[in-house]
Amino acid sequence: MSDVIAQATGLVKTYPPRDKRSAPFTAVNGIDFTLHRGEAFGFLGPNGAGKSSTMRMLACVSPPTAGTLRVLGLDPAADGRRIRARIGVVPQDDALDTELSVRENLLIYGRYFGLSTDVIDERATGLLDFAQLSDKAAERVDALSGGMRRRLTIARSLINEPEILLLDEPTTGLDPQARHVLWDRLFRLKQQGVTLVLTTHYMDEAEQLCDRLVVMDGGKIVAMGSPAELIAAHATREVLELRFGIGEQAAALDKLRQAVTGDRIEELPDRLLWYTAEGDAALAAAHTLGLTPVTALVRRSSLEDVFLALTGRTLVD
C-alpha cells in the first residue's frame, strides 16, 4: 500500500465574481503538497489564506479550478462519492441534531453510508466510549457542553471508519481542559493509523498535533515542514518580550531599531518582540539603552513567532 494518501500539484481554486464590477477571486493559487498515511498534517494561515478552500477540495465537495488532486489514489472529479465514503469530516460548526439524543445522532449519520443497523449500533457503542460520552448516550444534544458536542461531532465523523479525517478548527471556542481532552482523542486516532488533516488558528495546537504543516498566505504556501523545522528556519533560538507603559512603546521601538543590528524587532499592539540568540543579553542591552519596560520575558521561540514572521498578521484577522 502506498504511503501517499493524497497529493496536490499546482492546485488552484477560483471563485466567480460576485457582480459585474468584480473580478474572479483566486482563493488557492497553485499549491503543491503531499499527505502521508498515518500522519497529522496542518494548514495554518490567517483568515482568507485559502485553508478552507483547500479542505473543501480534499473533502470532494468543491472541484479544483486547475491543477491535479488525488485523494486515496482517486480523482475527486470522477470518484467523489467513493472518496467521501472513505473520509470523515469535522466541520467548524458541529451541525448536530439538537433535538435527538447523543446516540441517535450517531445512528442516523451511519445510515448515510449505507451501513446495516447492527454495524451502526456496534460502532456507535465503541465511538461513545472513545469520545467519553457513554454516560450521555440517552441525553439530548442540546443538554451537552461545548466540549461534549465537539467530541460527539468527531465520533460521528468516524462512524464509517475513515482513512482520512478532515478537521476544520477542531477546538475553536473550547476551554483549555476540553481542548486537551480533544487533543488526546485525536492523538489516539493517529496511533490507530487515521490520517489527520486540520486547520487551526491555535499555534500550540499545531505544535502538539501536527507532524508536518504548511503556512498559507494569500492563497499560496509560504512555508512547509515540521514545527521544529519551521521554528529553526524562521525564528531565532529565543525571544525577548517587552511591554511598556501607555504611550512609551513607539519611542522604545525607535531606540531599539537604531541601536540593534542583526536581530529582528517585531511590533505587536501590546508589546515588542526581540528575536535573538540570547534573550538575557538582549534584556541587558535594553537596560543599557535606558529602556525601562513594565514587564520583560525571555522565552524559547514558538510556532506563533513563525506565523507572525511569515504572514505579518496577528493570529486572527
Automatic annotation (TrEMBL):
Membrane topology: Peripheral membrane protein
SMART domains: AAA (SM00382)
Main localization (coarse): membrane
Span of domain ABC transporter: 6-243
Subcellular locations according to the entry: Cell membrane
Entry keywords, A to Z: Antibiotic resistance, ATP-binding, Cell membrane, Membrane, Nucleotide-binding, Translocase, Transport
Record's GO cellular component terms: plasma membrane
GO molecular function: ATP binding; ATP hydrolysis activity
GO BP annotation list: response to antibiotic
Domain of life: Bacteria
InterPro entries for this protein: AAA+_ATPase, ABC_transporter-like_ATP-bd, ABC_transporter-like_CS, ABC_transporter_ATP-binding, P-loop_NTPase
Pfam families: ABC_tran
Residue ranges the record marks as coiled coil: none
Annotated PANTHER family: ABC TRANSPORTER ATP-BINDING PROTEIN (PTHR42711), ABC TRANSPORTER ATP-BINDING PROTEIN NATA (PTHR42711:SF5)
Similarity-based family: Belongs to the ABC transporter superfamily.
The protein's name in its UniProt record: ABC transporter
Organism: Catellatospora methionotrophica
Lineage summary: Bacteria, Bacillati, Actinomycetota, Actinomycetes, Micromonosporales
